[in-house]
Design goal:
single chain; 216 residues; alpha/beta; TIM Barrel; eight-stranded parallel β-sheet; 8 helices; 20% strand; globular; binds D-xylitol-5-phosphate; binds zinc ion
């Protein structure tokens, strides 16, 4: 089954609880939380205290996407704050430290995953696949909501689907960036099973209807 993970980056941060309820009542599967440090990406969003408050406000599965340098420093704090899934970028540290970050997340009893930016090749996930419950393929340059979908990521998505099917079939394959009614079918055809959507969900007049539509 295709899962939908609305991104709160497109929510009203002054009314976060209300906006989380809109997607949880709307039938969403995961809540996607974008953490940005102004360094790994040119934008700053939220950190550990906000994740902790979100945890207290909802029982949704919290899918925390860390767009921060050297995430190994912070993964345990995000797990303790209540994240259920924590993903780290392969570009954000050495292979050794990235494996360490994944091990720390798993040691907290949470699901770990890696993320690849658009210019990063599919093979970059291979050193980590054994430790991953999720691989996230960016379909925009990370940093901002509301950007255009990069259809040229589809061969990479399909290649990573092949790796997962062969080496770790329980691993989920998520896509993030520009997912909307016009692009959801192509990512599903190319092997994604979790679709992040920010502007397409929060910009919809009928949120439950939009979430259903995005399932393809
Ligand atoms: C971008 C974030 C995304 C973003 C997606 O760096 O990782 O999760 O919120 O926004 P949309 O769905 O509007 O492209
Ligand atoms: Zn994201």
């Amino acid at each position: 089954m295709i899962k939908i993970a609305p991104s709160i980056l497109s929510a009203d941060f002054a009314n976060l609880e209300r906006d989380i309820r809109k997607v949880s009542d709307g039938g969403a599967d995961y809540l996607h939380v974008d953490v940005m440090d102004g360094n790994f990406v040119p934008n700053i969003t939220i950190g550990v205290p906000v994740v902790k408050s979100i945890r207290a406000a909802t029982d949704m599965v919290l899918d925390v996407h860390l767009m921060i340098d050297r995430p190994v420093r912070y993964v345990e704090a995000f797990c303790k704050a209540g994240a259920d899934i924590v993903t780290v970028h392969v570009e954000a540290d050495t292979e050794e430290n990235t494996r360490k970050a994944l091990e720390l997340i798993r040691g907290c009893g949470k699901k770990a995953g890696v993320v690849v930016k658009p210019k990063t090749p599919a093979e970059a996930v291979l050193p980590f696949l054994d430790l991953c419950s999720m691989i996230l393929v960016m379909t925009v340059e990370p940093g901002f909501g509301g950007q255009s979908f990069m259809a040229d990521m589809m061969p990479k998505l399909r290649t990573i689907r092949g790796y997962i099917d062969e080496k770790n079939p329980d691993c989920e394959l998520e896509v993030d960036g520009g997912i909307a009614p016009g692009t959801c079918k192509t990512v599903i055809e190319n092997g994604a099973n979790v679709l992040v959507a920010g502007s397409a969900v929060y910009g919809a007049a009928d949120i439950p209807g939009r979430i259903r539509e995005l399932r393809g």
